[in-house]
Each structure stands twice: as C-alpha cells, then as structure tokens.
Amino acid sequence: MPVHYRMHDLRHTAASHLRADGVPLPEVSQILGHASPAITARVYAHAVKRTPGSAFRQLSDYYRREAEAAGATEKGSTGAGSTVADGEANGTGGAGPGAD
C-alpha cells in the first residue's frame, strides 16, 4: 500500500525535529511563519520530551560550571579556593581533604 505524504506532514515533521534538536522556539516559529511562538509551542510541545530528572541535572550542571568558574577566579586572584566540583572529584563531597 503506497504512502502519500502531504506537504503539511513534511512541514510538521521538520518542525518537530528542529524542536527535538534544541532549536529555540522563536526561531522555529519564525521559520514556520507562525504569528507567535505561543502557537508553535502549543502545536509542537510533544517534540521536546525530557526524561525524568533531566531538568535537575541541567540545573546541577549549571551550578557546577558556575562554581568552577568562581573557583578558577578565586584561585587566580588569591591562590586559594575550593569548589564543590573539586570535592566531588577527590571523593570528599566538597568537604575538603581529610574530611570524614
């Protein structure tokens, strides 16, 4: 049985893939010619699926990077400093050397 795709089906598939690949909503909305990103969000909300806990991991990664950047700045200016990431790397959980 032959499958017939409509132009709208191809458009919808392309937009879903753009959203799933992380293209910002306003950009996809503009490509599609929607009047506002709200329309795009409503139609393509299914395309951005997150696994449980992914938002928490993303937030944790953000704070880790910020702590590392602050630690690098601290170390560069004062010669001292420790970050949570340093403690995690050496297994002390951020408590520092010798902490139990």
What topology does this entry show?
Layout: H1 7-20, H2 25-32, H3 37-44, H4 54-78, H5 84-90
Q: What's the tally of helices? A: 5
Going by helix content, strand content and strand pairing, the class is: mainly alpha
Q: Provide the helix percentage.
A: 55-70%
- Global geometry: elongated
Let me know the number of strands: 0
**Series of secondary-structure elements, N-terminal to C-terminal:** HHHHH
The rounded distance between the terminal residues' Cα atoms is 68 Å
Strand content: under 5%
pLDDT < 50 stretches:
79-92, 94-100
Average of pLDDT: 74
Largest sheet properties: none
What is the rounded Rg?
Answer: 22 Å
Attribute tags:
single chain; 100 residues; mainly alpha; 5 helices; 0% strand; elongated; disordered C terminus
What would you say this structure looks like, in words?
The protein is mostly helical and 100 residues long. Among the domains are: 7-47; 54-81. 62% of the residues lie in helices and 0% in strands. The chain is built from five helices and no strands. It has helices spanning 7-20, 25-32, 37-44, 54-78, 84-90. Helix 2 crosses helix 3. The longest helix is centred in the middle third of the chain and has 25 residues, at 54-78. The radius of gyration is 22 Å and the shape is elongated. The termini are far apart. Residues 79-92 and 94-100 have low confidence and may be disordered.
